[in-house]
């Protein structure tokens, strides 16, 4: 987001595309961007979506084919978002890629890392309310849900961050989300749970604070929120981060520091359930619930590393980096699924099938490569907790042997990417027709 920093549409494109290119090492199958479109004669706001299956270069080429967008148009304040997607729900194509939209008018758009485990229930509810879906993704459910909350708001002056707060309270799973809306021009809201998200800050002017206090709904949040919201002229530097004197500042949202390190080395790392909102060049962070272990503020940290170091850290190769990151990866995987306060587990999509699973006589866990290794690693725990025999099968060998599977067996198919579920369902339907 550039606030009082003039940028042409071409410069905005270049910044977004370069950020995506820094994340290409992760792997992806499609990409997309959302930027402000042209204002028409009656000055209606518009968000332009450009999405493309394939690599970032293909998206870059597609951007410059958009005849309706003047690349020389300059924006003093603008918020653009971009995303690369690795398909977990739905096939790789432009419709399923991000940003996902709330409706054909692009009233709300969102980009999302992670998986929403209760999206089917949410989708069913929204469809019953008349909302039409155009993709197969779990992310579109989030875009439709925030539209539903907005359409059913109690007051006209509801803030963008309040909408997002209400949305994430309905979500199960892991996510990092960034929202943009024509209803809140020049504003951005981001939040995370179990998926990394950071905010880079760049300004040639002095910043109001180095420690952003965490605001809470339960403690005069409404009063503090009004200080930072869009239409307030008076400023309280103790609750918002901004450039002193309401001067130029830029904010960069990213899942990885490598995407923004060439723009700034000053970053804020968001924690689970943080909701960060930017309006009128002012950044505030709030949370819904206060926990005893909560840090009262988020500090601006200065990264000392160069771009190549950020991407690989202190490791000689990405594989080595990923090996040493496994403990953190396991912990992040459990976020949004394991509630450490109540010592309970959210089983997401499994909860509707618990009766059948409890009646089974044997568990069969099937996977390839690292998915197979994960199955072997968890076999002992599964046997101890369920007191059932657990078989672990290599998928290719399992298929070749034509292994007998009985009515009272339960099979778990593990996929590293989540892309194989469609193939599995087709195969199972074929088996059931025999």
TrEMBL record:
<dbReference type="InterPro" id="IPR029055">
    <property type="entry name" value="Ntn_hydrolases_N"/>
</dbReference>
<dbReference type="Pfam" id="PF13522">
    <property type="entry name" value="GATase_6"/>
</dbReference>
<dbReference type="InterPro" id="IPR017932">
    <property type="entry name" value="GATase_2_dom"/>
</dbReference>
<dbReference type="GO" id="GO:0097367">
    <property type="term" value="F:carbohydrate derivative binding"/>
</dbReference>
<keyword id="KW-0032">Aminotransferase</keyword>
<dbReference type="InterPro" id="IPR035466">
    <property type="entry name" value="GlmS/AgaS_SIS"/>
</dbReference>
<keyword id="KW-0808">Transferase</keyword>
<keyword id="KW-0315">Glutamine amidotransferase</keyword>
<protein>
    <recommendedName>
        <fullName>glutamine--fructose-6-phosphate transaminase (isomerizing)</fullName>
        <ecNumber>2.6.1.16</ecNumber>
    </recommendedName>
</protein>
<keyword id="KW-0677">Repeat</keyword>
<dbReference type="GO" id="GO:0004360">
    <property type="term" value="F:glutamine-fructose-6-phosphate transaminase (isomerizing) activity"/>
</dbReference>
<feature type="domain" description="Glutamine amidotransferase type-2">
    <location>
        <begin position="1"/>
        <end position="281"/>
    </location>
</feature>
<dbReference type="Pfam" id="PF01380">
    <property type="entry name" value="SIS"/>
</dbReference>
<feature type="domain" description="SIS">
    <location>
        <begin position="353"/>
        <end position="434"/>
    </location>
</feature>
<dbReference type="GO" id="GO:0006002">
    <property type="term" value="P:fructose 6-phosphate metabolic process"/>
</dbReference>
<dbReference type="GO" id="GO:0006047">
    <property type="term" value="P:UDP-N-acetylglucosamine metabolic process"/>
</dbReference>
<dbReference type="InterPro" id="IPR046348">
    <property type="entry name" value="SIS_dom_sf"/>
</dbReference>
<dbReference type="GO" id="GO:0006487">
    <property type="term" value="P:protein N-linked glycosylation"/>
</dbReference>
<dbReference type="InterPro" id="IPR001347">
    <property type="entry name" value="SIS_dom"/>
</dbReference>
<dbReference type="InterPro" id="IPR047084">
    <property type="entry name" value="GFAT_N"/>
</dbReference>
């Amino acid at each position: 987001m550039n606030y009082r920093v003039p940028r042409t549409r071409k410069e905005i494109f270049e910044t977004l595309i370069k950020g995506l290119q820094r994340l290409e090492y992760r792997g992806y199958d499609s990409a997309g961007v959302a930027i402000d479109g042209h204002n028409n004669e009656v000055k209606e706001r518009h968000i332009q979506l450009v999405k493309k299956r394939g690599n970032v270069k293909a998206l870059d080429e597609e951007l410059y084919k958009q005849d309706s967008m003047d690349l020389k148009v300059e924006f003093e304040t603008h918020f653009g978002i971009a995303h690369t997607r690795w398909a977990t729900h739905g096939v790789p194509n432009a419709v399923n890629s991000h940003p996902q939209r709330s409706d054909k008018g692009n009233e709300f758009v969102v980009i999302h890392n992670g998986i929403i485990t209760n999206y089917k229930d949410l989708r069913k509810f929204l469809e019953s309310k008349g909302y039409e879906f155009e993709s197969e993704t779990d992310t579109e459910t989030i875009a439709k849900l925030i539209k539903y909350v907005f359409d059913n708001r109690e007051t006209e002056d509801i803030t963008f961050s309040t909408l997002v707060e209400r949305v994430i309270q309905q979500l199960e799973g892991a996510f990092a989300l960034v929202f943009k809306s024509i209803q809140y021009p020049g504003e951005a809201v981001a939040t995370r749970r179990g998926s990394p998200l950071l905010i880079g800050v760049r300004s040639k002017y002095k910043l109001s604070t180095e420690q952003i206090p965490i605001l809470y709904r339960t403690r005069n949040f409404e009063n503090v929120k009004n200080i930072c919201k869009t239409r307030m002229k008076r400023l309280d530097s103790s609750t918002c981060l901004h450039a002193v004197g309401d001067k130029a500042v830029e904010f960069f949202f990213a899942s990885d520091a490598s995407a923004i390190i060439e723009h700034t080395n000053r970053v804020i790392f968001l924690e689970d359930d943080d909701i960060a909102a930017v309006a009128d060049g002012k950044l505030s962070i709030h949370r819904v619930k206060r926990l005893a272990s909560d840090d009262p503020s988020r500090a601006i940290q200065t990264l000392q590393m160069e771009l190549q170091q950020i991407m690989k850290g202190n490791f000689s190769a990405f594989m080595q980096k990923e090996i040493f990151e496994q403990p953190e990866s396991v912990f992040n995987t459990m976020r949004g699924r394991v509630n450490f306060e109540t010592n309970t587990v959210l089983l997401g999509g499994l909860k509707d099938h618990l009766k059948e699973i409890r009646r089974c006589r044997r568990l069969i866990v099937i996977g390839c490569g690292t998915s197979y290794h994960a199955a072997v690693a968890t076999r002992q725990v599964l046997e101890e907790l369920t007191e059932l025999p657990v078989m672990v099968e290599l998928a290719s060998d399992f298929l070749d042997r034509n292994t007998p599977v009985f009515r009272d067996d339960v099979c778990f198919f593990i996929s590293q990417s989540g892309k194989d579920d469609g193939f599995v369902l087709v195969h199972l339907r074929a088996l059931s027709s025999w």
